[in-house]
Amino acid sequence: MQADSAVNSETLSVALAPGGAMARDFNAVWEQLWRQDHVPPRLLELCRLRLARLHGASAETAALRGLECDPDRIEALLTGRYHASARFDAAEQAVLEFAEIYAQDPGALTDELADGVKRHFGEAGLVCLIEALGFIEGRIRLALMFTALGAVTAH
Question: What top-level class would CATH report for the domain 12-153?
Answer without folding.
Answer: mainly alpha
